[in-house]
Protein 1
Amino acid sequence: MAKLLVKQVRSKINCPLTQKRGLEALGLRKMGQVVEHDSNPTILGMINKVKHLVSVEEVK
C-alpha cells in the first residue's frame, strides 16, 4: 500500500467546523506539521475535503 505525506500549509482559522475536524482526524494540529498515512479511500476522502489547506506527497 502506498504511503502519503500530508503537510498542513494553510491555517484553519475561519474554516468551517467540518474542515477543522477533518484536519484533526488526519492528525494535523499545527501549521507545518507533517503526518504519514496509508493511501486508502477514507484518508483520500479526508484529504479531498481539506485539499486547499494541505500539500500531499507520495512516499515510495
Note: The radius of gyration is 11 Å.
Protein 2
Amino acid sequence: MSNIPADLRYAASHEWTRLEADGTVTVGITDHAQDLLGDVVFVECPEVGREVSAGEECAVVESVKAASDIYAPISGEIIAVNDALADSPELVNSAPYGEAWFFKIKPSDAAELDKLMDAAAYGASI
C-alpha cells in the first residue's frame, strides 16, 4: 500500500500539493507514482518565473522504465525549483514527500486547491 499523507492534496495525475504558511504551494509526485516509475534517473523542473495553468505539463521525470510528464496541479507562477534533484534524482524514490519536492507555485487562484483530492479520495483512485 502506498504512503498517502493526510495533510496533502492530490491530483489525478499523481502530483501532491502542500499549502505552505506563506500561501505558496509545494508540489511533488506521490509515493505511488515513484513506485510505478521505478528507479528515477533524471528530473527536469520548470523555469522559475514561468506561469503555468492547472493541468499543464511543466516538468519531466525519467526512470529506468519510462519518462513521464509532471503537471501543474494548480495555476500560478513557479517561484522555486528543487535544484537538488538535478544531482540526486534518486531522492524521488527515497523521499517523495520530503526533500524530493519538484517546484513551488505562487497560486493565481488558491481556490483551485479545493478541486484536488484529499488522501482518502486519492487512495480510492489508485
Note: The two ends are 10 Å apart (CA to CA).
